[in-house]
Model the fold of this input.
Amino acid sequence: YLDDQFPSLGWKIADDLDALFPWMPCTDEQRRKLVHCYRIDPDTERRFYRKAQLMGSKGTGKSPEAAKFAIAELELDVEFDGWDAAGEPVGRPRTKPTPFIQIAAVSLDQTDNTYGALLELLTEHDGRAADTLGLDPGDTRTVRRSNHRARIDKVTASAGAREGQPITAAVKDESHLWTPSNGGVKLSRTIDRNLGKMDGFGLETTNNYDPSIQSVAQEVDEAVAKEAPGIYQWKP
Done:
């Protein structure tokens, strides 16, 4: 793709995900999204974007895609670590702060969209991927066997994402359903503040939204339309 000619850790991350999950390789479209999400600004040597919104119709595979993102943030080379001899960026796993990822939705059933896909990916083929990565997948969280503070939790609007939690990445699942009335807008803002304190990254999945309910998806879409910095948006 002509517009993908910039430094990015996403190419290597996509290759590593394909090696972990050969039965569900990244499509060209999913690979392109990873390349954008992990784009590196050569001037600051930091990630070019701080959040991403992936918009698409139901049934287009957004949940497995978001699950792979969460796994990558926990275990793969997502942190910039210099340049190789060819001038390409090199990554390393996040170590400080310890990776702490949240998969969030406004209800428990909705968290199972992405978190359920994550469990399936990690436990398929007799748990091959979980064993390769050294992870213990559970019903409410997935932890690193060698350090349980490195983990992926699922959270809901009712449980909340407590102010100040040191999260390094987050998935906001089905943000077209996150509204002021169900606590979704409050949850989104808490997650964003927590990510901001840790220089973290937020990934949002959404269907087309209803403009009458003032959802988080609409809020982000309108910010992109106003050319707010730091947001990558994918629309089919």
In short: The first helix runs from residue 10 to 20.
